[in-house]
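JOB MANIFEST
job_type = single_chain_structure
chain_count = 1
residues = 296
[input]
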Amino acid sequence: MSLATTTETPAAEVAPRRRRRPFAVLARAVPVVVVMAGLAALWEGYKLLGVDTPVRSDDTTMPHLWSIVGALFDTAQTGQTTAPLWRILFDGAMFTLREALVGFIVGAAVGIALAVVFQLVPLLGRALLPWIVVSQTIPFVATAPMVVIWGGRMGWDAWLSVSVIAGYLVFFPVVVNVRRGLASADAASLELMRSYAAGRWQTLFRLRFLVALPYLFAGLKLGAAGAVVGAIVGELPSGQAHGVGRLLLTFASFFNLAPERLFAAVAAAAVLGLVFVGTIGLVERLVLGPRAKELA
């Protein structure tokens, strides 16, 4: 009898949890919906007031939100392509995503490798980290054309040069966060590893890396956002006919004629960044499990 009670109790506890999951998802979505609705109300409310300061509220400067949504289904032409605007934006976002993803992988790998080296050789970390910080203070809008020119002289495809620019914005948050995570192992755990006669590499992989995982994902999410920004900015001087950056430049040239297209392209860039960062967040939850919820 007691055995039956013991086996039935977990099932009775799990069922309510499963029923609560949809409500938990909805509860998390409510703040996002409220913020979006509030921003939409501010936008349309500003237009309703008809003020001209600080931004003119006429339709050629601030189109209605429904005009922006409607423009997605209008036929547009970019280069040799004629298709609905949503299709053009989707294809451009996929092209930019490829560049950002390659840059993200390379930048994250470089950042993790540098963090490991700095942990194993602290003197090298203290010597090089200030220069890494200095490298991030240089406006990458100015360095992007240089990377494109250097890549062209080396025979690279233009999209690969754009990926290098994206990776440039990824490695810094990764190396800083992972370095901090590797150094965050508590003294008691380190002493336990020493009592087991664990070497530096064993301590690194079996203790420090596990402790550093939350820091790693924090750096990866920052890097994912930076990769998208770097890819979009890198596309501007690359001369490519594809990508969200090229679409932004094209629609900005015809802003007075069709301002809603530029706003739609900006929205596409924002959605691309949200999807990329959200994917990293999903991987974080799968890897860390309950720890991810505690750190959220």
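[summary]
Residues 1-62 form one domain.
The chain has two domains: 1-62, 68-295.
exit_status = 0
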